[in-house]
Amino acid sequence: MGTQKVMTQAYVTQTIQNQVATIEFFHPAHNSLPGDILAKLAKTIEEAGKNEEVLVIILKSGGERTFCAGASFKELIAIEDEKTGEKFFSGFANVINAMRKCPKFIIGRVQGKTVGGGVGLASAMDYCMATKFASIKLSELNVGIGPFVVGPAVQRKLGVSGMSQIAIDANTFYDAEWARQKGLYANVYESTEELDKAVAEFAQNLCNYNPEAVKEMKQMFWRGTEDWDELLLERAKISGRLVLSSFTKEKLKRFE
């Protein structure tokens, strides 16, 4: 894959080495997530979960700066009816549910800022590691919608208090240390190099665990989320409806 392609074309890739699957997504618009990338991401996570050669999954994004800018504004602006809106937002629901149901531990590698749906992805990791540059923001109220689909995942990690704080204060980035104190990040590192070294070592250590025990532990950790298949789709309908409101349409025009 040439540098030019990496910098200009969106992708989802998977590499397997020493029983560790590294799943990487990229989009030239600050790793924002359009529907096709969300679908590929969910499918790749599901496949890695079923692959007997894989014991641990690392989920990361390409590029050096933003981990994930959340929903694709280009696609949000193009939504013209509720069904299309619901389908777009259910893309995030499908990724979170794929992560939730995956029988293997998913380690998050967050190298930079993460916004909106990206905070949902980080929250759905089983163990998340980041750099000090990985500040977070739930910006959805700013554009007239809300963090409805990712809300349950964020609330599960940050608690109602932490989640409501960043959801209401939709203009502010909260730094990586705040996110660590709230339990989103397990560790925060000074540089991407340090982060990558720590993630690789940690993933290799996890390969020594009994896969059956990991599967049982995963179910235990996610107990109480069994209704998320339905719940997150219901939330997608709310976002799909709100994105069509005149308020939101006006707000989105500023991003064109």
Please give a structural write-up.
By secondary structure, the chain is an alpha/beta fold. It has a single domain (3-253), classed as 2-enoyl-CoA Hydratase, Chain A, domain 1 (Alpha-Beta Complex), CATH 3.90.226.10. The protein has helices spanning 3-8, 35-50, 73-78, 82-101, 117-124, 151-168, 176-181, 192-206, 211-221, 228-242, 246-253; strands spanning 11-17, 20-26, 32-33, 56-61, 70-71, 106-110, 114-115, 127-131, 136-137, 187-189. Strands 1-2-4-6-8-10 form a 6-stranded mixed beta sheet, sandwiched between helices. The chain has a two-stranded parallel ribbon with strand order 3-5. A two-stranded parallel ribbon has the order 7-9. Helix 2 (35-50) runs parallel beside helix 4 (82-101), helix 4 runs antiparallel to helix 10 (228-242) and helix 5 (117-124) packs across helix 6 (151-168). The two termini are 30 Å apart.
CATH fold label:
2-enoyl-CoA Hydratase, Chain A, domain 1
Assess the beta-strand content as a share of residues.
15-25%
Over all CA atoms, what is the radius of gyration?
Answer: 17 Å
Which bin fits the share of residues in helices? 40-55%
**SSE string:** HEEEHEEHHEEHEEHHEHHHH
Number of helices: 11
Task: Please give the oligomerization state of what you see.
Answer: single chain
The strand line-up of the biggest sheet is: 1-2-4-6-8-10
Number of domains: 1
CATH class: Alpha Beta
Number of strands: 10
The CATH architecture classification is Alpha-Beta Complex
Shape summary:
globular
Please report the distance between the alpha carbons of the first and last residues: 30 Å
Structural class, from helix and strand content?
alpha/beta
